[in-house]
């Protein structure tokens, strides 16, 4: 009888531990959501609350909220640095969490015009998941800022291989192709992007630029080529010095 009671007690404990863990995760997720929402209301207070929460064992959620609050307060580089630290927590966080932190870091570095840092963050994220479209786009933006439009086009083509109807990837590739002089391909990309996201002001502006570039190219090609004959050498008099 005693053995039966003991086994029953262990069974109840085994059931209660996962339930408690699930309740704790839900509570942490709710607090994290509340912390992020507080940033829009009072970023400084959200940062202070996140610090307190981190010291009380808030873990990666508290650290993430701290970083996002720092960004809202204008400390973009410090926010990106902290997100990179979260991304580097191998074995402590899931690969999905880590790549998402690297993506946020890459975008914050881009906003800070720190291209080398943005490249490192995006590449670190792609090492976790090479098929992540957003990370491909982030790295392609770095290449574009460095005038490496061919590399930008390559990354965006890879992104579209995984997500063929991504309007952002199409728009960025259209811009890269325009700068490479591939105007027909650029127009095809921007038309698709416009169809997928007709309200995008950025897409509409770029489409106008591509259409104008095509017009100027047609105008240039329609101009008659003027053949100029080489000028005959001028007659020179021989001067004899006395």
List the SSEs and their pairings.
Blueprint: H1 2-41, H2 43-55, H3 59-72, H4 76-87, H5 95-111, H6 115-128, H7 133-145, H8 149-162, H9 167-179, H10 183-196, H11 201-222
What do you see in this structure?
Helix 9 (167-179) packs parallel to helix 11. Helix content is 77%, strand content 0%. It is built from eleven helices and no strands. It has helices spanning 2-41, 43-55, 59-72, 76-87, 95-111, 115-128, 133-145, 149-162, 167-179, 183-196, 201-222. The protein has a domain at 148-221: Tetratricopeptide repeat domain (Serine Threonine Protein Phosphatase 5, Tetratricopeptide repeat, Alpha Horseshoe). With 242 residues, it is an all-alpha fold. Residues 1-19 and 236-242 have low confidence and may be disordered.
Q: Kindly state the percentage of residues in helix.
A: over 70%
Q: Estimate the global geometry from the Cα principal axes.
A: elongated
Number of helices: 11
Q: Give the strand tally.
A: 0
Question: Which consecutive residue ranges, at least 5 long each, have pLDDT under 50?
Answer: 1-19, 236-242
The fraction of residues assigned to DSSP E strands is: under 5%
> What structural class is derived from the secondary structure elements?
mainly alpha
**SSE string, helix = H, strand = E?**
HHHHHHHHHHH
Q: Give the N-to-C terminal Cα separation.
A: 140 Å
CATH architecture tag of one domain: Alpha Horseshoe
CATH class of one domain: Mainly Alpha
User: What's the story with the biggest beta sheet?
Assistant: none
Say which CATH homologous superfamily of one domain is assigned: Tetratricopeptide repeat domain
Q: How would you state the average pLDDT, rounded?
A: 87
Rg: 29 Å
- Which fold does the CATH topology of one domain refer to? Serine Threonine Protein Phosphatase 5, Tetratricopeptide repeat
